[in-house]
TrEMBL record:
Origin: domain of life: Bacteria
Organism: Lactiplantibacillus nangangensis
SUPFAM superfamilies registered for this protein in UniProt: MetI-like, Periplasmic binding protein-like II
Cell inner membrane in keyword set: no
Keyword Ribosomal protein appears in the UniProt entry: no
Bilayer-spanning residue ranges: 293-315, 349-372, 461-482
PANTHER family linked to this entry: GLUTAMINE TRANSPORT SYSTEM PERMEASE PROTEIN GLNP, MEMBRANE COMPONENT OF AMINO ACID ABC TRANSPORTER
The name this protein goes by in its record: ABC transporter substrate-binding protein/permease
Length: 492
């Protein structure tokens, strides 16, 4: 039960549904081969958001960060009963249903409630777990509050878009309901007194309380329907044969009470393991992985963004016939559109939108989106740099018999690059920080890794301090290197 950017994703889903031909939907309804496809592929891709213990969370297993939890155990049993291998794909909760609808994942197991609104867009299995809701408060404030009605005049937190968030909005009076991306963010807000309580599912609340002596849990007394407090597995709409097959597994899990007898105790062992050593040094591999992916995204995006920028700049400056005029208008439209829309939307559109036609990995999608975004800004830097070169330079080159292409390549662009170097350096520094946006599609850069560490250790501030320092080191180092080359160019 986690989400964010609900309205934004809802708009994207609507857009994607318009793109998908109606004939395709009818064909899927007429011929359901969902089970056959999975068994033929031999791999079942499970989408989850691993920031929700004990349902799904990250733990260090044999020195490697691994997604564990009771939902993962259920996913393993489903895959085993289907006779296929399980592959887990992590992303933000908000992105899961979109990923399911666009074919990025085959199923979603992430403590998801089978609400009527969700049933309109995806198919659900029978419920595999029935939980309840509690409110987490600071232990020092436990005497002040009894349930949801005690927060009148205060602020109650919940994950944006969850059923408990909706319940808090509807069933509390004179209470400000504050939504955030993840429970780890909400616990940090609670401990810093930005909110007085956090509404969450009972198993998750108990996980946080048992691993943080400064917290306590209260009964919520929310009036909730059974569907709002239960969890089920989601599949693409029309996957009847696959859902029917998995329902047999779910029924077996419930009949044998495997969640309480086996899966929850297993998750509890990992939770205890996480809290044995919560020092930031213990997670150096996670932060190192984050640095690696941040640099890969930044370097690749700068390279491709520069190439795109040159092409767009030259296209915008084209003069002459109908073709050049068309290129100029297209380049101008592209630059204005990219600069006029948020990068976050662009990242999600490349990953999910193009995912309707090409199954691009999250890292590749992130690089493409950021490169396309950077290219629009670099184009303006280059265009400004070209305009800053004195016309006499061009005239002198032409008088020596150089063609337009040679003049631009050997005379104008080198001088333009020298003039715009500070702007290009600033773009590089900006991309190091903007690479954090791709964490929403599951790319394991610094922000993503910090969220993992926060979920693992139940420590809110320390991982944030670490990544702030790491980002500063990266940007400061890059700035010094860029300044060195700038001085060299000025000297030359």
């Amino acid at each position: 039960m986690k989400k964010k950017y609900g309205l934004l994703l809802a708009m994207l889903v609507a857009l994607f549904m318009l793109v998908v031909p109606m004939s395709t939907q009818h064909a899927q309804a007429a011929t359901d081969d969902s089970l056959e496809k999975i068994q033929k592929k031999g791999v079942l891709v499970m989408g989850t958001s691993p920031d929700y213990p004990p349902y799904e969370f990250q733990a260090t297993v044999n020195g490697k960060s691994t997604v564990v939890g009771m939902d993962v155990e259920i996913g393993k049993k489903v895959a085993k009963d289907l006779g296929v291998k399980l592959k887990i794909k992590s992303m933000s909760f908000d992105s899961l249903l979109v990923a399911l609808q666009t074919g990025k994942v085959d199923m979603v197991i992430s403590g998801m409630n089978p609400t009527p609104a969700r049933r309109k867009n995806v198919d659900f299995t029978h419920t595999y777990y029935q939980g309840g809701y509690e409110i987490v408060v600071n232990k020092a404030d436990k005497g002040k509050y009894k349930d949801k009605d005690s927060f009148s005049g205060g602020t109650l937190g919940a994950q944006t878009g969850t059923t408990q968030y909706n319940a808090a909005k509807k069933q509390t009076k004179n209470t400000t309901v504050k939504g955030m991306t993840s429970n780890s963010d909400l616990i940090l807000a609670l401990q810093s007194h930005k909110v007085q309580g956090v509404a969450m599912e009972k198993p998750t609340a108990q996980a946080y309380v048992s691993n943080n002596k400064q917290l306590a849990a209260l009964p919520s007394h929310f009036d909730m329907s059974s569907s709002a407090t239960s969890s089920a597995i989601a599949f693409r709409k029309g996957s009847t044969s696959l859902v029917n097959k998995v329902n047999k597994t779910v029924d077996q899990v419930k009949k044998q009470d495997l969640v309480k007898k086996s899966y929850l105790p297993t998750a509890g062992k990992y939770l205890k393991t996480n809290t044995v050593n919560t020092s930031m040094g213990h997670y150096w591999k996670a932060f190192l992985t984050g640095i690696e992916y941040t640099l890969i995204i930044t370097v690749c995006s700068v390279f491709f963004g520069f190439i795109i920028g040159i092409i767009l700049a030259l296209a915008r400056m084209a003069k002459g016939g109908v073709l050049k005029t068309a290129l100029r208008w297209l380049a101008t439209a592209y630059v204005e559109f990219i600069r006029g829309t948020p990068m976050m939307v662009q990242v999600m559109f490349v990953y999910f939108g193009l995912g309707l036609f090409v199954n691009l990995p999250a890292l590749t999608s992130g690089i493409i989106a950021i490169s396309l975004n950077s290219g629009a800004y670099v184009a303006e830097y280059i265009r400004g740099g070209i305009n800053s070169v004195d016309d006499g330079q061009t005239e002198a080159a032409r008088s020596l018999g150089m063609s337009n292409g040679e003049t631009m390549r050997y005379v104008v662009l080198p001088q333009a690059l020298k003039n715009i170097w500070p702007s290009l350096g600033n773009e590089f520094i900006t991309l190091i920080k903007d690479s954090s946006i791709v964490s929403i599609i599951g790319v394991t850069e610094l922000i993503y890794q910090s969220n993992i560490v926060r979920s693992d250790t139940y420590r809110g501030v320390a991982p944030i301090v670490v990544i702030m320092v790491l980002y500063f080191i990266l940007t400061f180092t890059a700035s010094r290197i860029l300044n060195y080359f700038e001085r060299k160019m000025q000297h030359d």
